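Hi all, long-time lurker, first post. I run a small reading group and we've been trying to get comfortable going from sequence to structure in the token notation. Rather than ask abstract questions, I figured I'd post a concrete chain and ask someone more experienced to write out its structure so we can walk through it together at our next meeting. Sequence below, copied exactly:
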Amino acid sequence: MKKIFLSCIAMALMFLASCKNETTPAASAQDVPKANEPALIAMVMKDGKYGYIDTEGNYLIEPLYPMARLFSNGLACVNIEGVRTDLFQGAVGGKYIFINTAGEVQFDGKGYLQPTSFLEGFAPVRLSDQEVGFINTNGDLVKQGFNAIMPFHEGLATALDLDQGIIGYVDTQGNWKIQKDENYTLGDFYQGRAFFKKDNQYGFLDTTGAEVIPASYEATYDFHEGLAAYLQEDLFGFMDLNGTEVIPNIYEDVADFSEGLCAVQKDGKWGFINKENEFVIENQYTAVRNFSQGFAAVQVDGKVGYIDLKGNWLVEPKYGNAMDFKNGFAIVQRDNGLGYINLKGEEVIPPIFQRADNFVDPQASNPILQVN
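-- Answer (accepted) --
Happy to help. Here is the structure in token form:
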């Protein structure tokens, strides 16, 4: 469950569209829910093409696209005229455009070179091999001239300008708010803190750019529920927003705190601790995910089920894989297909899809699902 940190120096070589002081973008037509707007929508793949379904499994948008992203801020990025390939995750050729929840092409069909998604009302877009910028939900180009830019988090986006030798953060107008040099690697802001790496050590910045937690750690995770994991001497512990180490580094691996609990690995097995560093659910699982909506996916003897916050089974282990609950549904894998269960553990959409994403409110800011 170790996380991969993004090196912003490497952003000069590739454009990463991953996928909160929350800056409110200007209102647009996409921000106004329509009378027939689906409450929840999920992206799925069937027969090598992506489409979108409702919570009963009915297609809202038929599978037409060799590559697509989930809906966020009312819009989804899809590939047209390209060909899907198994050589990498994506499509070859064609162009990337945006559609609304009715499947209607937006921004007069303007196409982009790489897939992207909106987050907090803005989407990074590649304009040429050497230049990126970002657009708003009206399709207006807000700012360009960067070599790389990441999605916005808490109103700030990591950006890179090689001509000026600057790596730092820009606001939603594209103005530099924090500037560092190319010796830094920077992460996204969570709870007013962003990790930085310098001289192969990690620390945290605040939103002014001050190094409020000095770079003295082998690795760090993002802050969640007021705590962030740190790595020292190959073992993980947790610090608070001030950098005070509140849980000692005694764990082989950890996740993030969620719903008051955190998955930790001890003696090769996973369990869950509280913020007082007490095991609430003993380390007994071979793999786990975070708690979400009161349940967590856990693996026993190669099969995955779901437990509640007390360790009781909602679903006995029977799936090949399973994801976190979101908006009342979780993705599960059975018989080499993906489907959905509800919060009662009932299989409400059969596992017939090759790929699947969470059910989301299409108007909300929805980060890209990270699968492992």
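A couple of things your group might point at:
The radius of gyration is 21 Å.
Confidence is low (pLDDT under 50) at residues 1-33.
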